[in-house]
């Protein structure tokens, strides 16, 4: 009588488990692994800390840069769409946000708190289109993340790094470019942002000009908020 080999059954069970686990790898699993293994080391080389989906870098002055990989809420286990968000939050901007909210800011600055906010898109995406990367399995996740790293090298890390300089940040404001927001559509917002970047140098004609513009051009429904901002910035400048 031939007895079944217990080891052969064990091998068969192990093979079934391996097949089941491989089948259970989702697009979300792939997108967690690929940024951790490829985008994470790139972020660390540029002085960022964190793990998917957020990496952050701060300065001694309290400025923060954030890189965020955002997944679409319409994604599924088989198909996931994602995009790279960039944000930069100068300390004076964060100081005002804390005063406005009447509470301290969280330890980890979120991408949504950025004064500058922008998005990176896949190579070949049409100009002006909100293109997203598509991830379906390990292979496409690696290809997508490799392109993310390439786009960050081109228009991510260097752009954020320059904004740690106050002069460079003011130059960007003078140029009317805060990523998704342009001065042509948000004149009062840009005037306030410039006032925040000038206030720590004390009262000046330049600061007075920005505050005057912001207060003179605000919508009547936002007058109370505008006056509060004006008074707060003047108080900060007086203490400088």
Folded structure, characterized:
The chain is an alpha+beta fold and 240 residues long. It contains nine helices and eight strands. Strands 1, 2, 3, 4, 5 and 6 form a six-stranded antiparallel β-sheet that branches. A two-stranded antiparallel ribbon has the order 7-8.
The helicity comes to: 40-55%
* Largest sheet properties: 6 strands, antiparallel
Structural class: alpha+beta
Radius of gyration: 24 Å
What is the beta-strand fraction? 15-25%
- Overall strand count: 8
Order of helices and strands: HHEEEEHEEHHHEEHHH
Which regions are unreliable across 5 or more consecutive residues at pLDDT < 50? 8-23
Overall mean confidence score, pLDDT: 87
Number of helices: 9
CA distance, first residue to last residue: 95 Å
Shape: elongated
